[in-house]
Structures are given as C-alpha cells and as structure tokens.
Amino acid sequence: MKRCDWPSNELNIEYHDKEWGKPVYDDKILFEFLILEGMQAGLSWDIVLKRRETMRKAFDNFDPMILKDYDEDKVEQLMKNEGVIRHRLKLQALKINADCFLDVQKEYGSFSKYLWEFVDNNPIVNSIEKTEDLPVVSKEAETLSKSLRKRGFKFVGPTICYAYMQAMGLVNDHLNSCEFK
C-alpha cells in the first residue's frame, strides 16, 4: 500500500495506518493524545510511541479523574520510572491539564465538542504533495493554543496543537498519494 513517506519503522507505520489523521471524538482518546503530544515537546514522536504503553500504565490509563489528584509525591514516583518521559514540568502538567480538561468537559458537555469547534466540526483536508511541505502550524492551531493556554493548560503551544490536530484527525495531512488519506 502507498503511504506517506515519513513512517520509518513498524511502530510509526502502524500509528500512521491506524490512527494518524483519523477523526477522533472520544474524550478519553482526546485526553490521552493531549498528554502524549505535550510529552513529545522537544523529543521525537518515536520516543513517545515506544513509551506509550508504559505511560498509559504509569499515568493511570490517562484517566483525568485520577490525574487531577496527582501531587508532588506522585511526580517524584514518576521521576524514578525509566519507562516514562521524566521531565518534571511535563509530569506536573498531568494534574494541571486533567483539571483543565475536566473544566472544559463540564462547560461544553464534552471536550470533543469544544475541540471540534476550532475546525467548524469538519476535518481540514490539506492537499500535500511532499513531506517537506507539511505545515507545522496553522491559524486554527494558534487559536486552539491560545484558548487552551487561557484555560490554564500546559504544553499546548501552536506547534504542539497542530500535531495534536493532525493526530486526532481535525486536520488530514496525509500526502495526496497516500492510500490512507
């Protein structure tokens, strides 16, 4: 099958083929990826994918109702876990982002409803010929980032938000030649 040319190993080929760019409306998955994209900041996505299952276990299955109660003792415990991304500020952001996520859910009824409004409830399908033409940010990602930061979220800059929007299918950036588009 013809796919985008950026997947370079079995793990990111599977991610590309089964997840990347597919519209997601499930709050549980949306929260997990919001955390994963923040964890990726400054690192390669391969590192995140390799540690995803370990982080899922260590971060209580990305359950915001549990993460909202994380304290400094939990952060210290996670800092000793070699299977997670051990960045203190990112680990401290687990609680902050869980609190903010739950606030958005309460206000909108779901995080999905809030999130999809940034693309008028329809995925943006870009026409991209080559990987080097993939955008790293958009006006929608900048608007989302600004809104999330105003609500108190951490590790949600415009580039992270754009990657998040790609991952969750708000933006479809598969190459035109990709059969997964």
From TrEMBL:
GO terms for molecular function: DNA-3-methyladenine glycosylase activity. It is an enzyme of class 3 (hydrolase). Its EC number is 3.2.2.20. SUPFAM superfamilies: DNA-glycosylase. Keywords: Glycosidase, Hydrolase. It comes from the Bacteria. This is DNA-3-methyladenine glycosylase I. It comes from Breznakia pachnodae.
